[in-house]
Amino acid sequence: MPHRPYIVGNWKMNGTRAMLAEARAIDRAAGRYPDVQIGLAPPFTLVHTIASEAQAIGTGGQDCHTEAKGAHTGDVAAAMLADAGADFVILGHSERRRDHGESDALVKAKAEAALGSGLGIIVCVGETLEQRDAGQAEAVVQAQVAASLPSAAMAEEAGMARVAVAYEPVWAIGTGRVAAVEDVVAMHQAIRQTLVDWSADLGEKVRILYGGSVNADNARDLLAADGVGGALVGGASLTAESFLAIVAAA
Ligand code: PEP
């Protein structure tokens, strides 16, 4: 892999100010792992505090709107995230696709808004169990990648460091079920093919993260798998201890 592994915690809808202690502990320890790029995506309410204190980790949002401002109650613009100090944003997480009906086209528009505001993006894709059982996993995920990524021209202008894809099989998120390493490798190869078709310039370089019940016990094998450029971590990112164990495994 051309980059440092990228390990990103997604706190989802977890975290009040009481959890800032965990973020501070992660940031303090991050200096011990200069070969790992570390990101943390707390709820919007904590982005500014974490971003303004962080020395060694990147801070991210978990979603953004396509528009820069306007009558969209409850939404947050990419430029607002950037203004709060965020470095990146997670887009198209399967929980957003499920809970908010987000389509690939919407994720693409959000990705372009985020790049336009100077943020990095992590675009999430992944198949359901039904799709995997029907033998459709690779086709479904390749179609999601092709339709959810920003235009290649925008991404090329932003540069490879600001674009990542996270492969997160829906059935592995928060379930304790982890994809088999050989399936992860096969899917990462399929995603890489799609990326190369998308951009001759960036396709080989964009990092592909794995997400889905990553923890201290399975992280080493997953992160050593061919083509895996890092991990997107949900439940195990909620304490500094469990998250740093994954960082150490990278
Ligand atoms: C996620 O939310 O992106 C995720 C992978 O969650 P978990 O690690 O809890 O499965």
UniProtKB/TrEMBL annotation:
Gene3D superfamilies: Aldolase class I. Its EC number is 5.3.1.1. It comes from the Bacteria. PROSITE patterns: TIM_1, TIM_2. It is found in: Cytoplasm. GO terms for molecular function: triose-phosphate isomerase activity. GO terms for biological process: gluconeogenesis; glyceraldehyde-3-phosphate biosynthetic process; glycerol catabolic process; glycolytic process. GO terms for cellular component: cytosol. It holds the Pfam family TIM. Substrate binds at residues 10-12, 174, 213, 234-235. The active site is at 93 (electrophile), 168 (proton acceptor). Keywords: Cytoplasm, Gluconeogenesis, Glycolysis, Isomerase. Pathway: Carbohydrate metabolism; erythritol degradation; Carbohydrate biosynthesis; gluconeogenesis; Carbohydrate degradation; glycolysis; D-glyceraldehyde 3-phosphate from glycerone phosphate: step 1/1. It catalyses: L-erythrulose 1-phosphate = D-erythrulose 4-phosphate; D-glyceraldehyde 3-phosphate = dihydroxyacetone phosphate. It is an enzyme of class 5 (isomerase). Belongs to the triosephosphate isomerase family. Involved in the gluconeogenesis. Catalyzes stereospecifically the conversion of dihydroxyacetone phosphate (DHAP) to D-glyceraldehyde-3-phosphate (G3P). Homodimer. This is Triosephosphate isomerase. It comes from Novosphingobium aerophilum.
